[in-house]
Amino acid sequence: MKRAKISPRRPSRTSGPERQASLIGAAASLFAANGFQGTTTKAIAKAAGVSEALLFKYFPTKRALYAAILAEKAQYSELREAVEEAARKQDDTGLFTLLASYRIKKGADPTMLRLLLFSALEGHELSDMFFQRQYRSFHDLLAQYIGKRIESGAFRPVDPLLAARAFFGIIVHHRLLHDILGLPMHRSYEDTIDEYVSLFLGGLLQPSPAFRPHTRT
Predict the structure, then answer these.
(1) CA quadruple 172, 103, 177, 117: dihedral positive or negative?
(2) What is the pTM of this model?
């Protein structure tokens, strides 16, 4: 009985978009671990299993790779739509919860936060690119919302921009502790977010007239 001949399988060819995604993934991991300056194109190509020549075919510079990482990972259109809808409804709790829960969640990828920290510490222009893409629009959006709620009398008269920064500061500090430094969480993600939002809004909301402290004349 003759054995059937088995033709050797040819390795499947990787498409252009798949190759780009592989390069972006390898670069993001290395940038997050070693910083922009500490990552070479040779190391990126090796991690992606390609030659440097092929890497340069898709991304002629490390800066181009960095911009591609931001474009791929900074997808906020759905979040922005949800936040703007909550703002139209003047849903304070819903709006702040949306912003917090987008970052504070199980399995959150710390890559982008690491990239932000490295780019800021290294002091190159990409730190500004990162801030503009990652945080600026939501800082401004939240500051505008707080300002409008102050005008309506719902919030105490505070500096809207500082208040927005303070809230995002809570989120970033939480992620530094738990996603970067590895501190275990002692409460669930949902309870943690609820507590942060409650504490923050408690400091913004105008007290009810019945509970305002008596002032002497």
Answers:
(1) negative
(2) 0.72
